[in-house]
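request received
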Amino acid sequence: MAGDTKERILETALELFAQNGYLGTSMNDIAGQLGFTKAALYKHYTSKQEILDRIVERMNEMDYARAETYDMPETAPDGFAEAYLHTPVQKIRAYSMAQFDHWTKEPFSSNFRKMLTLEQYRDPKLAQLHHDYLAGGPLEYMTAIFRKLTDSDEAAMQLALEFYGPMYLLYSVYDGTEEKQAVSSLLAAHIDRFIARVESGGRKEGSAT
Amino acid sequence: MAGDTKERILETALELFAQNGYLGTSMNDIAGQLGFTKAALYKHYTSKQEILDRIVERMNEMDYARAETYDMPETAPDGFAEAYLHTPVQKIRAYSMAQFDHWTKEPFSSNFRKMLTLEQYRDPKLAQLHHDYLAGGPLEYMTAIFRKLTDSDEAAMQLALEFYGPMYLLYSVYDGTEEKQAVSSLLAAHIDRFIARVESGGRKEGSAT
DNA sequence: TTGACAAGTAACCGCTCGGTAACTATAATG
DNA sequence: CATTATAGTTACCGAGCGGTTACTTGTCAA
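response:
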């Protein structure tokens, strides 16, 4: 198959980038892993940099598609918080668990996340992606969601921090342990605790559901 | 001064390792930053690897010394949780804020943390250090502290996750923002909220002060 | 049947890497 | 004053890097 090899190059390269970093992976490494020599790579991609660019491109496409299937909006526009008020809290749980599964179990995304972690200080473009996908981005997203449940921006950000911080930590824990399932359970328990606390605790004036 | 140059090499190398990774930093880069040529480096260190080893060694020494000044024990041995019961909760706050300041403001430690982040998947030894210093390690440490406040190991780990997760996330946020002070405030607010919640909420039977 | 094309190969290019060898200026020591 | 140690230098080494070139081979359509 034609496009098949091109695809396998992309996945293999990302796998190696995630393990050894971009600089730590040579064209020989990628080709060798696939069973041929590096010159063949240049039949499919013009440079090592282009492989990286196509990986980033692919990730953006996957992410866009995924945001469309889920009916939580990709970014948090004006008027979104109202939409959330009509949304059962369980949707946040399902969405967050799906996010976690995606960034840990799905091979391409898991490797992409690890690569972002390794390259976040060296490459400004990847630093931006690391922020948007994994650090400040999700934090801001959750802040927008929690905004209408609280009295102030500060309180919303605190809630987002309490919700997403543990999730972010568990990515690292997940990578470093063999008991993957236990980590997922830990996250589920955290989300349940959090939801229970927010629902019973200080609710704002006119919040239905 | 004799040892002075050797020390400057260490700090400069770590600075570059934190920015560009170990592989992304050449001996020429390190020497150039210091104003001489790479051959001079080999008068002080036998190899690039030895520079990295000395950095790790230095970090371990600094950490040990710091754990001694603070009277929170370095690891959590048997009987430690009882000691915690005699300890004002404010000590956890002070200790955690000091930890955060240390890993962000103190140049050597801040760079060391960034380097661990970049090298955690490539080098197994650094992966272990990343776990011990920044991810699973602190989580287990806090779990041990919270153990005597809760009914079960699971609940203790949940508390630790809720306490340390946001802190871990804020390291990343801190690195990526210009408003460093705001991030510190965010952490302080988080800790205060957490302590208030734990103190008012489900306390276990015989816990004084 | 043949000829264009796709997808490989081996060999090579210029460059940078970590590391070494031989040398030199400086300064403290007997 | 001669000597010795220290901390630099320039010049070089072999290896591996990203990338290129010329060539071969299998497939498939005209």
